[in-house]
Design goal:
Elements lengths: L1 H15 L25 E5 L4 E2 L10 E9 L5 H5 L2 E5 L4 E2 L4 E5 L4 E9 L4 E6 L28 E6 L16 E5 L4 E2 L6 E5 L13 E5 L7 E6 L3 E6 L9 E7 L33 E7 L7 E7 L2 E6 L13 E5 L2 E3 L1 E8 L2 E8 L8 E4 L26 E3 L1
Parallel strand pairs: 2-9, 11-17
Antiparallel strand pairs: 1-3, 3-7, 4-5, 4-8, 6-7, 8-9, 10-12, 12-15, 13-16, 14-15, 16-17, 18-19, 19-23, 20-21, 20-24, 22-23, 24-25
Bound molecules: calcium ion (CA) (4 copies).
Length: 400
């Protein structure tokens, strides 16, 4: 019976932790005595993040309550119970007198105290250097499925007692970029406001031009001035006398290590700096980058493809550079494969129509391709995904 229950629990664990539904993918949650390539993660906590810790014994004075941490994996019990700490972030005192236990079958850690201080917020840490699963794999506390040095993979959670509030709980995750504008699009303003917003209140003294570098495609920096700043967003503009140039791409790089959340006192230092790639804090966080194009000339696109007698019409929305409409850049396929053709250039209301006459009989469904490398007479490359910037990955055109 106990065996069956355990088997049931294992099945539930497999479902709960959403392992890949691939039968060839050996599930390392199972007690195979070897393996366990998957890093153990935390599945759930009570109270939930920044939630209230409720007194479970109204008959006794003070707050008696248990915090639980449930893992996705079977942990080495001692490695978990020895690596738990709780800081009262309101008083900056470590909590002493915790009763810590681990139920191996339930994969759950229990942290109980018979007298939690009221009007307090708490930070619970399960330190990764020590906490391991039964096969010795260290805790993936930030949940990004990558093993990182302490403290980046510490598991962090917060809660508070009556008289305090969720706002008093320190952040357990780093700030991220919420919006970047203009982002991978074309603008025709040479003195644009470039705005960046963040997911958390920021240290505004770090939202300065020194940490936000704007460069053109030749590598030259554009001097910026800060136009406005709030705790959640900032706007920069090219300095007077340094307008952007038409036809040039601009890349903004934000120095992740220098751009910090404001953070309450006692926020772990490693979750203050920018999480540029959105996968949690890490020792070598990349810088954040995005770009846009400054231009007044629209990039061309294919308006549509239509069938004609023994051929296809490719209608562009622009006057095209015919030397770029080659048999390498414009191709037709049928059920037999590539269909060679003869090209005839026509014009419809000033725009280019390419008539593609098949050199052999065709069969089955036709498909057509226009490379992102074809150009308009203005020298702009194809913009099939219509974001205003031509010639990029994703700008090949396919029909139908
Ligand atoms: Ca009580
Ligand atoms: Ca990790
Ligand atoms: Ca990251
Ligand atoms: Ca594009």
């Amino acid at each position: 019976m106990r065996y069956l229950l355990l088997l049931g629990a294992l099945l539930l664990a497999v479902i709960a932790c959403q392992k890949p539904a691939n039968e060839l993918d050996v599930d390392t949650n199972l007690p195979l005595e070897t393996g366990a390539g998957n890093l153990p993660r935390v599945w759930s906590v009570t109270p939930s993040l920044a939630g209230m810790l409720v007194d479970d014994n109204p008959d006794a004075a003070g707050v008696q309550a248990t915090v639980t941490v449930r893992f996705c994996d079977f942990m080495d019990p001692g490695s978990v119970t020895d690596n738990v700490s709780v800081l009262n972030t309101t008083t900056n005192l470590l909590v002493n007198g915790l009763e810590i236990s681990y139920n191996a079958d339930a994969r759950t850690l229990y942290i109980r105290h018979s007298n939690w201080s009221q009007s307090s917020a708490y930070l619970l840490t399960v330190a990764t250097g020590g906490a391991r699963n039964r096969w010795g794999k260290p805790l993936d506390g930030n949940g990004n499925r990558t093993e990182e040095e302490p403290p980046y993979d510490d598991f962090l959670t917060t809660f508070y007692t009556a008289g305090s509030s969720p706002d008093s709980c320190v952040s357990t995750v780093p700030p991220r970029v919420r919006t970047f504008d203009p982002d991978t699009e074309a603008i025709d303003d040479t003195m644009p406001d470039i705005t960046v917003s963040f997911t958390l209140p920021m240290d505004t003294t770090k939202l300065v031009p020194e940490n936000f570098l704007l460069k053109d495609t030749t590598g030259s920096s554009v001097p910026l001035q800060r136009v406005w700043v709030t705790e959640n967003a900032v706007a920069f503009r090219p300095r007077a006398g340094s307008p952007l140039l038409y036809g040039m791409k601009y890349t903004m790089t934000i120095t992740s290590s220098a751009v910090l959340a404001r953070g309450l006192p006692r926020t772990p230092g490693h979750v203050l700096s920018l999480d540029a790639d959105g996968d949690g804090p890490e020792e070598s966080e990349p810088d954040y980058g995005s770009y846009f194009l400054c231009d007044t000339i629209d990039a061309p696109n294919v308006d549509g493809v239509s069938t004609t007698n023994n051929g296809l019409f490719f209608d562009f929305n622009d006057d095209m550079d015919e030397t770029t409409l080659t048999s390498a850049n414009v191709r037709v396929f049928d059920s037999e494969g590539f269909v060679p053709g003869t090209f005839v250039f026509l014009r419809v209301y000033g725009d280019t129509r390419l008539a593609y006459y098949f050199s052999r009989p065709v069969s089955g469904t036709l498909r057509a391709f226009v490379s992102s490398q074809v150009k308009s007479k203005n020298g702009r490359r194809l913009d099939a995904n219509d974001n205003g910037i031509g010639g990029e990955p994703g700008d090949d055109y396919w029909w139908p």
